[in-house]
Amino acid sequence: MTDITTNAASSGIRLDRKRLKAIARRSDRPGLIYLAQWLAFLLATGSLVVLAMGTPWVWPAMVLHGVFLAVPAYAMSHETAHGTAFRTRWLNEAVFWVTSLLYMEEPLHRRYTHTNHHSHTWHVGKDSQMPFDTPMDFKGWLLEVSGLALLRFHAKVLWQLATGSYSEIMRAVAPADELPRMTRNARLFIAVYAGIAALILAGVAWPLWLLLLPRLLGAPVMMAFTLIQHVEMQENSPSILESTRSFRSDRLGRFLYMNMNNHIEHHLFTQVPFHALPALQTELRAQLPAPDPGFWRTNLEVASVAARRSLGLNTRAASIRQAPHMITEGGFERVAQRTM
Amino acid sequence: MSDWIRVCASDEIDEEDLIRWDHGERSFVVYNTEQGYFATDGICTHAEQHLEYGMVIGTVVECPAHQGRFDIPTGKALGAPVCVDLKTYPVKVEDGQVFIRV
């Protein structure tokens, strides 16, 4: 197992410092435009839910609203965890808190485990954000894509933090001085969630139809985006090119996911904000593997591989990139247990 | 107290930027900010990454690895994931040359 930090240097990728500085330049404007567009979409899809109330159409309307709620909440929580969404720090942190509430992870836990994920990307025993056992079988795929595994993990983390029962991973990734702050934040989160539950129990319907149910119904699409970041890729490699996947995406996907389909590029240079990832991709293209096919095809191939792995069939995917040991027939050896 | 040591010509550091400066076994970063020139240790206190590829935003430097931020004039860590301050060093500019005392 390598002990080096996983980044551009460990992956043999080079970019002129002045060019990187120009690409990574910070601004509030793209983030504020994104927020305005996101809120407009939420207003539109939320209106559809309200209009469809009392008819069977309320369920697809809630799924649509949930996709526009859950995926950007994840993406913006991630971007603000890096501190790259806005140039203005207080704005970044305010949005980080709100989107982390929607994503349901205490902000400091999110930030510290994620910095660890970048330091030790997909390294067994070191990466605190490996959300499924690898290689992934069909049961693992179902648990992941349903959002149930992440929901269970987030509930467990909130409870552990709120009660001061810190896990080994928490103690490993966060300084001891920060743990009490994480406990305070987790209790605040639980109070907010309890307040929403109390409202619903008291007969106030909108948090149920516009927030809670859509958040749960939108989770599978959110999970499908995050699942393909590293699934079927190489564990314990110093190279981000081997551990991480970028994939092609249409305009809607790029918006929902804040350009994180350029996931290799993000891991190579984490200081580059979401709006500049396409420019970074253009800059690095000659040094990188071609991105995998689009969101739907990549996910369908992953599901197919997971199902065939459970059935003992050949697991070679039609077109997506796979680590050599992921391609098996008649059984497989588990490499990593989930850390989330 | 050690003597002043020349680092570079002042125009070798772009505005709102930094350069890495190694001296013996030690590594430093020298900044050109809107408030003047400053110097700190070169290694981030969070995960021992060099700040050489860091971003200067006003008078704040951001670590390239995990985006931990420090106030450049004071070295103060500005919040998670950085909690330990950077050590700072006196800097002066004379005759277009940047000097540091380490």
Describe this structure in words.
The complex is a heterodimer of chains A (340) and B (102). With 340 residues, chain A is mainly α. Helix content of chain A is 59%, strand content 0%. Chain A is built from 15 helices and no strands. The radius of gyration of chain A is 20 Å and the shape is globular. In chain A, 46% of the residues are buried. Chain B is mostly beta strands and 102 residues long. Chain B has one domain: 3-layer Sandwich (Rieske Iron-sulfur Protein), CATH 2.102.10. Chain B has no helices and ten strands. In chain B, strands 2-3-4-8 form a four-stranded antiparallel beta sheet, with no helix packed on it.
- What percentage of amino acids of chain B are in beta strands? over 45%
Extended strand count of chain A: 0
What order do the SSEs of chain B take from the amino end to the carboxyl end, as H and E?
EEEEEEEEEE
Look at the helices and sheets of chain B and give the structural class: mainly beta
The value of Rg of chain B in angstroms is 13 Å
What is the fold named in CATH at topology level of chain B? Rieske Iron-sulfur Protein
Coarse shape of chain A: globular
CATH top level class name of chain B: Mainly Beta
Low-confidence stretches of chain B: none
- What is the helical fraction of chain B, as a range of percent? under 10%
Mean pLDDT of chain A: 96
H/E series of chain A: HHHHHHHHHHHHHHH
Contiguous runs where pLDDT drops below 50 for at least 5 residues of chain A: none
